[in-house]
Amino acid sequence: MQKNCLECGEKIVGRTDKKFCDDACRNSYNNKVNKDHKNIVRNTNNWLRKNYRILEQLNPEQKTKVSRSKLTEKGFNFNYFTSIYTTKAGTVYYFVYDQGYLPLEGDYFALVKRDS
Prior knowledge:
This protein is an alpha+beta fold. Helices cover 33% and strands 22% of the residues.
């Protein structure tokens, strides 16, 4: 039984369970399949990545205080976060993966890192 490459259609030589003729075709096929088809997904992931890098950069000691202006100066977007954590006391933390921030009085934020 002859099998053809899923990417280019060429005849496959070798193992019976092979799907692609070479690594280039395999990579090309998987890149097409895994491509974000919608701009909203790609843009949201880009904002989350940027916010995470900013929080990580400003919070090297895993707990610090920073001003809103410092965050916005670096390009932080407060509309993009991955989760909200509310303590028993009602304090609301916003998280971008394991990096979080807590709004404080006077346009300041407490930056924290959640334990793994």
